[in-house]
Specification:
Low-confidence stretches: none
Number of helices: 12
Shape: globular
Number of strands: 0
Radius of gyration: 24 Å
Order of helices and strands: HHHHHHHHHHHH
Structural class: mainly alpha
Helix content: over 70%
Distance between the termini: 46 Å
Length: about 290
């Protein structure tokens, strides 16, 4: 028995060893180096002097940090709940279809998700171009004049949020479709025999059984949207007047443009801790809500 147990342990360790090695090399070691670097005045490449908490004192007295934090929070409000609601509505509609039509419609919604961010931003930059964009007549009809969307402080973040929802929502739709397919049709048939309306079917069966998937989508979206960088960098560059400047742009600027590796690491570490705390807190609150 002892020999068999040792064999099982050896087999288990052999199986997990590649993951542990890659995890330590790609994630754990860089994270520890980032933490160490955040307490120094080192450039991006090379050593520096230990400065203790100076980078964090500087960070918490930096107005650009608070502007970036506010923009991150604003973007989360614009995207996390709306994209979840939209994905759920689309999934409910697609789930009512069958056969090839369902597969075709699902593919149409998922298609933007496979596009690289550079292609997505280029498409929307053309569509919203101030002079030649095909959506400018619609904007002019609503506002009375053309709007340079990515150069307007009030328009830039909602525009980037809308583009992000269009781009990423296909994955959320797939998650909701998977959740809907795991709900037994017998439950709906039994409730229908008891005279339940469509609203009652949704509120008493679909929504409670779909809540774990909803919590997963909300948590994933929160993490992804707090890591906003690509869309803003390519569409607005953080402007105008820092109205779309976010924390990862601050990391990029300090690290790769100003060569302040220590300060950039401090910003990155604060963002990492923020994402970890907020996502864990949200997921736990959603779990508590699902039990009520």
């Amino acid at each position: 028995m002892i020999t068999n147990r040792r064999k099982h342990i050896v087999v288990a360790m052999t199986l997990i060893a590649p993951f542990v090695f890659i995890f330590a090399l790609v994630f754990l070691y860089p994270t520890l180096k980032m933490v160490e670097l955040s307490f120094t005045n080192a450039p991006l490449i090379g050593s520096g002097e230990w400065v203790g908490l100076d980078n964090y004192r500087r960070l918490f007295n930096d107005n650009l940090f608070y502007t970036s934090l506010k923009n991150n929070g604003y973007f989360v409000l614009l995207t996390v709940v709306p994209t979840t609601v939209i994905a759920l509505a689309i999934a409910l509609a697609v789930n009512r279809l069958a056969g090839r039509m369902q597969a075709l419609v699902l593919a149409v919604f998922f298609l933007p998700y496979i596009l690289p961010v550079s292609v997505v931003t280029q498409i929307w930059a053309w569509m919203l171009d101030f002079q030649f964009g095909i959506l400018q007549p619609l904007i002019e009809w609503v506002t009375g004049k053309p709007v340079a969307v990515f150069n307007h402080p009030s328009w830039v973040m909602p525009a980037v949020a809308s583009i992000t929802i269009w781009w990423t929502n296909g994955f959320n739709v797939l998650l909701f479709i998977a959740g809907l397919r795991n709900i037994s049709p017998d439950l709906y048939e039994a409730a229908a025999l008891d005279g339940a309306s469509r609203r009652q079917l949704f509120m008493k069966i679909t929504w409670p059984l779909l809540w774990p998937v909803t919590a997963l989508v909300l948590t994933l979206q929160l993490i992804l949207q707090l890591k906003l960088f690509d869309q803003v960098y390519l569409l607005s560059g953080g402007g105008p007047f820092n109205s779309s400047y976010v924390l990862l742009m601050m990391v990029y600027r300090e690290a790769f443009q100003l060569n302040h590796g220590g300060y950039a690491s401090a910003v990155a570490l604060i963002l990492f801790v923020l994402i970890m705390i907020v996502s864990v807190l949200q997921f736990q609150l959603l779990r508590i809500g699902s039990r009520k």
